[in-house]
Amino acid sequence: MAEKFRYMKPEELAAEIKSGGLRGAYIFLGDEDYLKRHYLSEVYKSIMSAEGLELFNYGKISFSAVSGGRDAGFSALASSLSSFPMGQERRLTEIHDLAVDGLPASALDMLCENLKAADETNIAILCLRKNEWTFDYKTENSQEFKKLSAAAKLVRFDIQSKPKLKTWAARHLSREGVGASDAALDILADMCSLEMSVIAEETAKLCFYAHGSGKTEITESDVRSVVSQAVTTEAPPFAMLEAAQKWSISDMYAVAATARDLREEPVALVAKLGKIISDMLRVKAGLEAGLTPAQIAKETKMKEYSVSKYAAAVAKAPISKLEESVRLACETDAALKSTQTDGYVLLDMLIAKIYTPRSLLC
Asked: What is the mean pLDDT of residues 134-156?
């Protein structure tokens, strides 16, 4: 019987990062996309030692149609992997938007050839979303698997066990000074379908809720009342809400990048952003009419704490800016439904129009 293939564990990758032992090419695969993003960030931080030289030492290659597709991707990849570090010992190349499923044999061979070019000074990571390489009982005997496993270390990120996720969520809450009962953590993990991305989003929202209501410990009842609303598709992502309230273009682009990794539909994201801006406009209109946050909350059926947060966010923004932002969101929604332009390109354009800092200087 053939020996079972041994994948690299995330813990082993963490040890290589800590010791400075990263070398060659890695392929991130498996169902837990949140951990892949986390370890990409850790690798980046460990390699980028020279501040201000990212342009020379970091290549992020996308094979998406928006970026030029496969031909442009392979050209950029070969160029990145043949470059030398500048001002530091190593450089990093990240590879995205390249699905193994359906990849022609010639493209697979070209990919493997490029991955084999990575070495101790030029680290390469192919980050596969969970739906970009389908695994079943035949996968490890396939040509794709044999060739890729010979060209790179395969790091497998599996869905974490419920006890681990509960401990992880408790740690996140604790950093914000919020405790949680075991029952609360148990139902939180279940309601988030054991997905780390969702749990991270919901622990942030629970902290927001706890601080706003003066609580130091989250109960099972709190989780049911807060998270049950948060996981519906209509509710704005908490990270998006925070970025909007801070008028932060970098934070909003980070939200969009994460949403793209998770394959969220641009039309849904624009709808959620539009709702946030519309709520901000309602609060601004109420403030200009002389209403208090409590009165606005009563009139709009919003929570008073949320109104207070919105009020602080719109304090320096002219109402004309908010009206214009709502109009732009509506136009983007129409364009998404009537043109062939890539949805994420339209979303990025909307973010730029609304959140470019000079646009606030009306």
From this structure: 92
